[in-house]
Design brief:
By secondary structure, the chain is of the alpha/beta class. It folds into 2 domains: about 190 residues, 2-enoyl-CoA Hydratase, Chain A, domain 1; about 50 residues, Lyase 2-enoyl-coa Hydratase, Chain  A, domain 2. It is about 50% helix and about 15% strand. The protein contains 11 helices and 10 strands. Strand 1 and strand 2 form a beta hairpin. The model has no long low-confidence stretch (mean pLDDT about 95). It binds 4-(N,N-dimethylamino)cinnamoyl-COA (DAK).
Length: about 260
């Protein structure tokens, strides 16, 4: 298996393990990532961490050697495969955090962009260099990057193929944090700030925030009213407010 799953208390780590090719994404690996996300999504894990094996790379992008000599239909299906697999992270009930431990280029950065959060080691380097190959991103980068860092910066990254280092990535909001020291431990600590909350409430919050990048303010506010009402109707909301009044810690049950 080139994609490894390991359990760390209430978290699951998905690790791309193909360091000899800097964890480049073959179509087989993309399918394995999809299977791994499916497995975690139906488990009792409270968060997903994703990283790459080795000290050099999170993921150096699509497997360039494999991209050659394919029919247009195969390419389109390939793009749809990558997009649908990465979208599974958005649909998973638990939050996802990319631990960018080195290069995250092309499809590798697109995988990280599909996570809810990104932490990076100080030596991490990120970019969408597809333009240098005469290509453009095909696994969601043209859509997720501008929603995250704004159109002008996203256009600059995509149209120049520039590399962004970790401090700059933090400055422009591409990563949440640059981590000195152990990235996995930092990922666990980051996740622990939300793992005890109600998964339905976390999901409603994520859906509402995502809508901000997709719709008008008035439509987004309507959506927020609906989702916040749904959250209010959960048993967890009752528990949370009961616990507040009783001055005790809430015990959420994801219900
Ligand atoms: N694909 C395949 N092999 C790769 C690879 C990649 N993306 N990146 C690295 N490798 C392999 C290298 O070929 C080398 O293998 P050997 O030669 O030893 O057999 C090994 O990994 C180590 O790499 P380097 O020797 O190059 O290591 P360096 O430290 O010198 O350089 C680097 C590291 C990350 C700067 C360099 O490897 C590099 O520039 N890699 C390519 C980065 C890149 O351009 N990524 C792809 C972006 S395009 C689609 C449409 C578009 C896309 C996908 C689908 N459809 C329509 C379906 C686009 C996707 C992309 O991701």
């Amino acid at each position: 298996m080139t994609v490894e799953l390991s359990r760390h208390d209430d978290l699951v780590l998905i690790k791309l393990n193909r360091p000899e090719a800097l964890n480049a994404l073959s179509f087989a690996i993309i399918k394995e990532i999809g299977n791994a996300i499916d497995e975690v999504a139906t488990s009792d894990a409270r968060a997903i961490l994703i990283t790459g094996e080795g000290e050099k790379a999170f993921c150096a992008g699509a497997d360039i050697k494999e991209l050659r000599n394919r029919s247009l239909m195969d390419q389109k299906r390939g793009a749809e495969l990558g997009q649908s697999v990465f979208a599974k992270l958005n649909a998973a009930p638990m939050p996802s955090i990319a631990l960018i431990n080195g290069y995250a280029f092309g499809g590798g950065l697109e995988l990280a962009l599909s996570c809810d959060f990104r932490l990076a080691s100080p030596e991490a380097k990120m970019g969408l260099p597809e333009i240098k190959l005469g290509l453009i991103p095909g696994y969601g980068g043209t859509q997720r990057l501008p929603r995250l860092i704004g159109e002008a910066r996203a256009l600059e990254m995509i149209m120049t193929g520039m590399t962004v280092d970790a401090p700059e990535a933090e400055l422009i909001g591409l990563v949440n944090q640059v981590v000195e020291g152990n990235l996995l431990e930092a990922g666990k600590t980051f996740a622990s700030r939300m793992t005890r909350f109600s998964l339905p409430a976390l999901g409603f919050a994520r859906d509402a925030v995502r809508r901000a990048g997709e719709t008008s303010l008035s439509e987004g506010l309507k959506c927020e009213a609906e989702l916040s009402t749904l959250a209010y109707q959960t048993e967890d909301a009752e528990e949370g407010m009961d616990a507040f009044e009783a001055k005790r810690k809430p015990e959420f049950k994801d219900a």
